[in-house]
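testing teh design pipeline on a random one, pls ignore if ur not involved
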């Protein structure tokens, strides 16, 4: 996928999701919006964050490699 295609995809995603929430499928199979701040569990050590730590996500971003980035 080219960078231009990725930018268009990101624009399409942000028609439905903003930087203050994410959409998830809950345990019942229903679509649910999680508003920031929401809790996450760190699954891999990153900087000062260690595996198993519970953190609050203040914002959500999407980088050009189409990976969700949580601002903690």
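output:
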């Amino acid at each position: 996928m080219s960078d231009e295609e990725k930018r268009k995809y990101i624009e399409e995603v942000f028609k439905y999701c903003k930087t203050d929430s994410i959409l998830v499928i809950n345990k019942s199979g229903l679509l649910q919006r999680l508003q920031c701040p929401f809790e996450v569990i760190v699954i891999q050590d990153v900087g000062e964050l260690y595996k198993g730590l519970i953190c609050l996500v203040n914002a959500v971003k999407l980088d050009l490699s189409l990976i969700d980035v949580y601002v903690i």
